[in-house]
Design a protein that fits this description.
The structure holds three protein chains of three kinds. Chain A is an all-alpha fold. Chain A is built from 23 helices and four strands. Chain A has a two-stranded antiparallel sheet with strand order 1-2. A two-stranded antiparallel ribbon of chain A has the order 3-4. In chain A, helix 6 runs antiparallel to helix 7, helix 7 packs parallel to helix 21 and helix 21 packs antiparallel against helix 22. Chain A is globular, with a radius of gyration of 25 Å. In chain B, 74% of the residues lie in helices and 0% in strands. In chain B, helix 1 packs antiparallel against helix 13. Chain C has a seven-stranded mixed beta sheet, sandwiched between helices. A six-stranded mixed beta sheet of chain C has the order 14-21-13-20-18-19. In chain C, strands 4-5-7-6 form a four-stranded antiparallel beta sheet, covered by helices on one side. The radius of gyration of chain C is 25 Å and the shape is globular. Classes of the chains: A mainly alpha, B mainly alpha, C alpha+beta.
């Protein structure tokens, strides 16, 4: 309101103090009379009993949160998603095995996504957009990519075409992966044995890179200029290294590790069984986008089990399933995106309210912790939409989750999965940006850069003309 | 006294000439600037010769000026090149003139009031330092403060809508009428005018005759008062450019400002000519008032002052 | 006075009542110069035009699929040198007239007409040969040669033939530039202070927002306050300093806007002493980019996942054209700078550098709207030069003057200009560095000219293979990092802020409003 006062004093007051107040405090979910985490408000997204067991709410207990807060490994993981620093902090003189296992598991997921980036980019640039200039060697990489992606190769003579390449080691590499296709064997040890850049035996706390790059140097068939090539399979060894390191350093977490990895597995990998009673240490949930152990089981069921039907199965046990259940039409095969966004928002508010009550007031960490829950919910709905084949909803949910994936919510394996999706959709700009953000932080992901760069150059030269704009 | 008509005549001639002289000067300036005006319409364009021809920019400044004046006399000023590219200038300036006139007239209200009160001797001299101190504040400063308040209040709607325009005009008028020495000048100037006149013997004689001071002095100072008021209005006109630009009021001053910055020469010409017309109108008004006063004086009985023939 | 005060209060209250829940209003850094797609000069032009027009083909912001709202089906003809388009039916222009094949062909012909002095059309003249309307709903577009992915080349906005009376020589100063007629979801009208958009339901669009307004934002703090107060509902480009505030608000949402942008300081290499490469290299070492970034953008050294990454050449670091073997200069090196300046014949007297006996002082300018994204950066750069012994005067240049004068190479009285370039999928930088001549170097700010650079740019132009193109640009990057027509600063991610009442607001890369039909405003 304009303050009624003397002219100059009035003008000054107007400038300084008379603008409407800014709302800074969060608006608690549901109603202002929300009595607590264990009771159910009429419009609650997550059942009351589940809210209390969600890790953000549990972590509002100072005594429980204290050891995590004081450990630099958790700070590096949560605040910066800095894997080398976190691994280093979890090692040392008093190693924290469960912390190391957590990091290695996330890395195992991240490398798999980077592999998908490279494989999708290879298929797009040398499969869908093949040009006369492309050397024969690309047929080998195409073959390997199709195998890794579990996609039928449109060409029956791919291996034959590959054999025309004179690059050393490339032919056997492709042949080995061709032989592995459909065998069901896991891990594909024979194929990995002829894949460049394989790390040594898995060691907790280590972060090997992909070895010398590029894997091969060919020449284009028009001008004879050097073309640098890398096989995306080179990243599988790194993924398995970290997976095995996680299992070795924390054997009691076997089931939890498998469940955590399940949504990120490659198509040819065997999936774990869906467990009703999954035991997940708090250290595996803390700072992740999973709220309760049942969320991991739910995600395993969606991505590797019954698909969208998992929503109904888990809606009483999984925070994700309960939140998104009203928005999923299993019979119709559709996910209501605005409903998911709305409900995820309500879950976010619910978590914050519960945290406030438990900690006796609002704290700085409440928001980022609750945000992870919101992002996880949307990602869960995205997985359901993908399982149902609702591409439109999946895409929209992905974009929404991507917008929210900043700061502590920016999990590298998720961002790389978006990059893989983008590469498959020929959105090379965003895929490049996402991959680039991880180069230098996750050693070896630059393997995927070779086909992705090639894709981007090809697409940019075949687009409508563009001029620099200011 | 014999040449009482000289000054009003000069004023009238200048008033009529201004709307022709100002665009001529601006045309000279356009041609004096480096670069081609066509590149302003279409930066980096090849093949802009057709544009140059359409805008009469291809045959020198006299050709341009005569064509522009010809169109202006018919109310055609062409299209804006940069400020609102493609929109007829007449459409932009049509609503802008009453806005600026309203702003000036509103700003004159405190000035008229203050002048009247000062002339009547109702504003004590002791307050002069206060008014002068206020007058030291440049219009830009309170204008920026008011802009911030209005921007916070109206947000993006501050650009359009009668409510925000009313607020901007009122505040703009207050700022114009008070700052930059406008109010203090009106008070001090009017008071000194009347004070000097009151010292004349005829006033003393009139007072002894029981006549009013104002009724005797006013006709004699009318010309000078009008001159002062004209000066104030011109001062306000120039201040209006700043106030309109800062408060984002779509008046003549703001268009002139923006068009100059963006080298939208068509709009500069039209807006400047608009200002010249307003100035000319004020000048003409002063000339007519001077004629009326002189005629009234010539009809009144002459009481020569001592030493005056 | 009491009465006018009451009047003001009443005016304020009624404005508050009227101003919320009406039009969806958003802030841009500057107003669009034109709504005519042929003459887009700034990103804000493209974004506004995306609401008013339909491009023949566009990429879905959801899955990047190439889609068209105007074309129902297509097939290649003439052995691949033509494409036959079967247009969708039921589409109207904003004035109610039907959209037909004549409009598509008119647009193609307008772009090919030499009387249309459009830099955007210039880019299409190499690819398009003409267009033939076969029927009311069928058009055949002819190419100059066989092209891969021909639909990718047809990303231009379609113009109405009847709005120009069939005259294909379209100039930028027509009323169409302010009051265009399109087939997009919104009908636009450029005013003096903003642009108003009115929804237009059509056969192929069903916008859910009735009215939109685009306004110029001015001060970024005021803009954020206006957003928080719901006086405005969106800001297209939020300064990095304010992003944390937006993220922390329950009523606001930070959204990604995919735009490949990088910042630079252009150097006038035609003016002494900057015509000496050693002097330019010295300036490069004088700048402490880390400090600049921290002060103007708020990114601390060593911060992970920062939106701002240093560059050493004219591409973003994630681009395949970026030569990663050319390191960026992140910290100043005054010793190296001094050595170079002495080698160039300058001497330091009383802490000030002198050239031929005169103190060196630079006239520096910056596009004004950049101050919203990196507040006071111009002053910080100036301060760094002052600390190193070089004086400067700083000026902020309005966006339109930047378009008309800086980009066209007319600001030759400046020594340094701070600016930003944005790109989409295509990162063609030829127009920035080619020697300016007819049709080339149209965005060469200081008319930089270097033979080797021209040769590399020509190599890119004629490259037959992707590798050759990429090699040419890698070499260009290295050459420009040595020759320094620009001091390359950084790439900066772009984020928008929208109130949460705005739902379904999917933001398309580069063009922004491509998916506007899904936007809803529940305010």
């Amino acid at each position: 309101m304009i303050c009624p006062n003397r002219w100059w004093a009035g003008l000054l007051l107007l400038a300084i103090g008379c603008s409407p107040p800014t709302v800074t405090s969060p608006d608690p979910a549901g109603s202002s009379a929300d009595p607590g985490p264990d009771s159910v408000a009429a419009d609650a997204a997550i059942p009351g009993g589940l809210v209390g067991s969600a890790w953000p709410v549990r972590m509002s207990d100072d005594a429980l949160r204290g050891p995590f807060e004081s450990h630099s490994g958790w700070a590096a993981l949560l605040m910066q998603r800095d894997y080398p620093a976190a691994l280093g902090a979890f090692g040392g003189d008093a190693p924290l095995a469960v912390g190391q296992a957590r990091i290695h598991t996330e890395l195992a997921a991240a490398y798999r996504q980077a592999l998908r980036v490279g494989a999708n980019a290879t298929v797009q640039v040398y499969g869908e957009n093949r040009r006369d200039e492309d050397p024969a060697a690309v047929d080998c990489l195409l073959l390997v990519s199709y195998v890794l992606l579990g996609v039928d190769d449109p060409s029956a003579d791919r291996l034959q075409a590959c054999q025309r390449s004179e690059l050393e080691g490339l032919g056997p590499h492709a042949a080995a992966w061709d032989a592995w296709r459909g065998s069901g064997a896991w891990p594909p040890s024979d194929a990995l044995a002829v894949t460049a850049g394989q790390p040594g035996p898995p060691t907790a706390g280590a972060m090997p890179d992909a070895g010398p790059l590029p894997h091969w140097r060919a020449v284009d068939l028009v001008e004879g200029l050097e073309v640098q090539l890398a096989s995306p399979a080179g990243l599988l060894g790194l993924a398995l290294f970290h997976e095995q390191a996680a299992r070795a350093v924390y054997p009691q977490g076997e089931a939890a590790i498998s469940a955590m990895l399940a949504p990120w597995l490659l198509p040819g990998e065997p999936a774990p069984a869906v467990s009703d009673e999954l035991e997940v240490p708090l250290e595996f949930l803390f700072g992740s986008a999973m709220l309760v152990p049942a969320d991991l089981s739910f995600m395993v069921d969606v991505t590797r089990g019954s698909g969208a039907a998992a929503v109904d199965t888990w809606k009483d046990r999984s925070a994700f399933a309960s939140t998104i259940a009203p928005c999923v039409d299993v019979a119709g095969g559709a996910v209501d995106v605005p409903c998911v966004i709305e409900n995820a928002g309500r879950a976010f508010d619910q978590l914050r309210t519960a945290m406030e009550i438990r900690s006796g007031g609002e704290q700085g960490y409440h928001r980022p912790f609750a945000e992870l829950g919101r992002v996880g919910t949307i990602r869960a709905a995205e997985a359901v939409a993908e399982a149902m084949g609702d591409e439109q909803a999946m895409g929209l949910l992905r974009l929404n989750a991507l917008d929210l994936s900043i700061g502590t919510s920016a999990e590298p394996h998720y961002l790389l999965s978006i990059a893989a999706w983008d590469a498959g959709n020929r959105n090379s700009s965003r895929a490049s940006d996402a991959l680039h953000a991880q180069v230098g932080h996750i050693p070896g992901v630059e393997v995927a850069r070779f086909p992705l760069d090639a894709l981007h150059v090809r697409l940019s030269r075949e687009s409508a003309p563009g001029v620099p704009m200011h | 006294m014999r040449r009482w008509w000289a000054q009003p005549l000069v004023r009238a001639v200048v008033a009529l000439a201004l709307p022709f002289a100002v665009p001529a000067i601006i045309t000279l300036l356009i041609w004096a600037l480096p670069g081609s005006p066509v590149s302003i319409i279409c930066p980096g364009c090849d093949g802009a010769e057709g544009l140059a021809q359409r805008w009469n920019l291809d045959q020198g400044m006299v050709h341009f000026y005569t064509n522009w004046m010809g169109g202006a006399l018919h109310g055609e000023f062409g299209n804006s090149w940069r400020v609102v590219q493609g929109v007829p200038i007449a459409e932009l300036l049509g609503p802008a003139i009453p806005v600026t006139v309203t702003l000036i007239l509103l700003a004159m209200v405190p000035l008229f009031l203050a002048s009247a009160l000062a002339g009547l001797g109702w504003i004590p001299r002791q307050l002069d330092p206060l008014f002068q101190a206020i007058g030291l504040v440049p219009a830009m400063v309170p204008a920026l403060v008011v802009y911030a308040v209005i921007a916070l209040r109206f947000g993006a709607n501050m650009a359009d809508g009668p409510e925000s325009l009313t607020a901007k005009l009122l505040w703009g008028a207050i700022i114009l009428g008070i700052t930059d020495g406008a109010l203090s000048g009106a008070i001090v100037g009017t008071r000194s005018l009347f004070d000097n006149e009151r010292k004349q013997q005829y006033v003393v004689v009139a007072q002894l005759r029981g006549e009013g001071v104002l009724s005797n002095t006013l006709p004699n100072v009318a010309g000078a008062l009008v001159g002062q008021m004209r000066g104030r209005m011109l001062h306000l006109l120039s201040g209006a450019v700043i106030v309109e630009a800062v408060l984002r009021i779509d008046g003549l001053g703001d268009y002139l400002w923006r068009a100059t910055l963006m080298q939208d020469f068509g709009l500069v010409l039209a807006a400047a000519t608009g200002f010249a017309l307003v100035s000319g109108a004020i000048l003409m008004l002063q000339a007519l008032i001077e004629v009326a006063v002189a005629w009234h004086q010539r009809r009144a009985p002459v009481i020569p002052a001592p030493g005056v023939v | 006075m009491g009465r006018s005060r009451h009047l003001l209060v009443a005016a304020g209250i009624s404005a508050a009542v009227l101003s919320t829940g009406a039009a969806l209003t958003y802030y841009e850094g500057a107003l669009p110069t034109t709504l005519n797609p042929l003459y887009a000069a700034k990103m804000v032009d493209y974004r506004a035009q995306e609401l008013v027009f339909d491009r023949l083909w566009y990429h879905s912001p959801i899955n990047n699929e190439l889609e068209s709202r105007l074309v129902q089906s297509w097939e290649l003809t003439e052995g691949g040198k033509g494409i036959k388009l079967e247009l969708a039916s039921g589409i109207k222009w904003h004035d109610g007239k039907p959209f037909t094949a004549d409009d598509v062909c008119f647009t193609v012909k307008a772009m090919l007409d030499s009387g249309t002095p459009s830099p955007i059309a210039e880019g299409y003249r190499d690819i398009l040969a003409g267009c033939t309307p076969e029927s009311r709903s069928t058009a055949i577009v002819h190419f100059t040669r066989i092209v891969h992915n021909p639909r990718e080349r047809l990303g231009f906005s379609v113009l109405p033939e009847h709005a120009f009376d069939g005259n294909t020589a379209i100039s930028p100063d027509l009323e169409f530039s302010a009051r265009p007629t399109g087939t997009g979801p919104m009908k636009g009208s450029r005013g003096t202070r903003g642009v108003t958009f009115q929804s237009f339901a059509n056969g192929h669009h069903s916008p859910q927002v009735g009215q939109m307004q685009l306004q110029e934002s001015g001060d970024p703090l005021l803009a954020i306050k206006a957003l928080i107060n719901n006086s405005v509902q969106g800001i297209i480009e939020v300064a990095p300093n304010f992003r944390a505030d937006v993220s922390a608000s329950d009523e606001l949402a930070l959204k990604s806007y995919d735009l490949r942008s990088w910042w630079f300081v252009a150097i006038n290499s035609k003016k002494a002493p900057l015509d000496d490469r050693r002097v330019r290299q010295a300036l490069n070492f004088m700048l402490d980019r880390t400090e600049l970034r921290e002060k103007s953008i708020g990114v601390k050294p060593g911060e992970r996942n920062s939106p701002c990454e240093f560059i050493s050449g004219p591409f973003v670091p994630s681009s395949p054209y970026y030569n990663r073997s050319v390191p960026a200069v992140e910290r100043s090196d005054q010793g190296q700078a001094e050595a170079l300046l002495k080698e160039a014949g300058m001497e330091k007297v009383g802490g000030r550098w002198q050239f031929k006996g005169q103190p060196v002082s630079f006239r520096m300018g910056m596009e004004k709207s950049l101050d919203n994204e990196a507040p006071d950066i111009l002053s910080y750069i100036s301060n760094q030069f002052e600390a190193a012994g070089i004086g400067s005067q700083v000026y902020k240049i309005p966006p339109d003057n930047w378009t008309t004068e800086a980009i066209t190479g007319h600001l030759t009285d400046y020594d340094l200009l701070v600016g930003k370039w944005s790109f989409g999928q295509v990162e063609d930088v030829n127009e920035l560095f080619y020697t300016r001549s007819r049709g080339k170097g149209t965005r060469n700010i200081f008319n930089y000219s270097e033979q080797e650079v021209d040769r590399l740019l020509a190599q890119y132009d004629v490259a037959k293979t992707d590798t050759a193109a990429r090699d040419a640009y890698h070499k260009l990057h290295r050459k420009l990092a040595e020759d320094l027509p620009y001091l390359f600063l950084w790439k900066l991610d772009t984020k928008s802020a929208w109130r949460t009442e705005v739902k379904g607001n999917t933001i398309a890369p580069y063009y922004y409003f491509t998916q506007f039909d899904s936007w809803r405003y529940e305010g």
